[in-house]
Design brief:
Elements lengths: L10 H9 L5 E4 L12 E4 L14 H15 L5 H4 L2 H10 L6 H14 L5 H10 L6 H17 L3 H9 L3 H35 L8 E6 L6 H12 L3 E6 L4 E7 L6 H6 L7 E4 L3 E7 L3 H14 L13 E2 L7 H6 L15 E14 L4 E8 L2 E7 L14 E6 L11
Parallel strand pairs: 1-2, 3-4, 8-9
Antiparallel strand pairs: 4-5, 5-7, 6-7, 9-10, 9-12, 10-11
Helix pairs in contact: 2-4, 4-5, 4-7, 6-9, 7-8, 7-9, 8-9, 9-10
Length: 413
Amino acid sequence: MITVDCGISAVEEIAYANSLGIETIVTDHHEPGNELPKALAVIDNKRKDSQYPFRELAGVGVVFKVIQAIGIQLGLKEEEYLKYLDIVCVGTISDIVPLVNENRVIAKLGLMLIRQTKNIGLRSIIHSSGYGKIDSNSISFGIAPRINACGRMGKAEEALELLLSKNYHKVNELTQRLNEHNRIRQETEKNIFENAVKQIEEEHLKEGNSIIVGGKNWHHGVIGIVSSKITEMYFKPSILLSFEENGVGKGSGRSIPGFDLHDALMQCMDTIEKFGGHSMAVGITVKKENFLKFREKFEKIAEEAHIEEIIPVIQVDSKIEIKDINKDMVESLKQLEPFGEGNRMPVFVFKNLKIDSIRALSEGKHLKLTLKDNSTIINAIGFNLGNLAEEYRIGDKIDVVGVLEINSFNRSR
């Protein structure tokens, strides 16, 4: 049995596999606990005794390095394993690991391969996403959500089948299913988010240093996304738990820069069943009977870490005038690609712009504006900022921080 992107904390499970005579190889990239599983091999770039020079590989990156090592050992030609870089690239960008060092090489070479990929499933999902330009942005917001939606909605085998299929008819059918899973995922996510926010407001949890909430039968596959949104909304570490009929809560947590979530949970081991992950994101299991005790202990740890002193900061690269923006200028930014975690798109600040038009999109989710500076007008989108449509009016003067892109969605330009 070979694990992928999991297993580093599965000490008991692998011990049971050993008792059944099953040999296990663990490939993972999450932070290890105090004890490593007794597997045939445990390959994790975050092992404390690891001598590998780069510790930020994604789970798919660790698997790729294993494949590469086997290929070298067997004397295979490089193309025999490098041909998988299109899939490795998608996984690396989707896992939101820093796109620096070896991850940057994987992403850059992988994107080149994706643009001419022979994988008909990958080609199909790219086409259905509506993005005309293939880059890290289209992977993050077009391809990754559709592939991830399968796993989140309990249909992971369909994403696998899509990427393995050689049948065009089957691929088209599976692509439609992925899009439908993504639609359902978005609806489910919205409902859980609204329920979580209601609980946070009613219990005044936003006044604390952390946010831990639970709900009955919240979908396990999407609460990690909701936790990310809660953390972004309140700028506090958050954990969401879904309680089942047996009184066991399983969930996900997300953190803010400067607060190590993994380390905090290590201090709460007497109140939780198990957890795994890293400093910014975790999966966790807590019994309902220990929920309040866990929340209280975690809150105390967050308080001692002085969460209130951690201030969200937007790093701005440069101030710019609308009149200075043109196609050539925006195209020149491509030299810095691929963009992602650890290598963000250049961020610009625009001062004293006049709102020429403003409205909400996607059922109030996003914000659409046209902004004017003297006689020059530019279009702008504020993702997940739809609520601001009611706070500003045409003619208002505002400062804006954002990135510059040539709009290629749905092949417009």
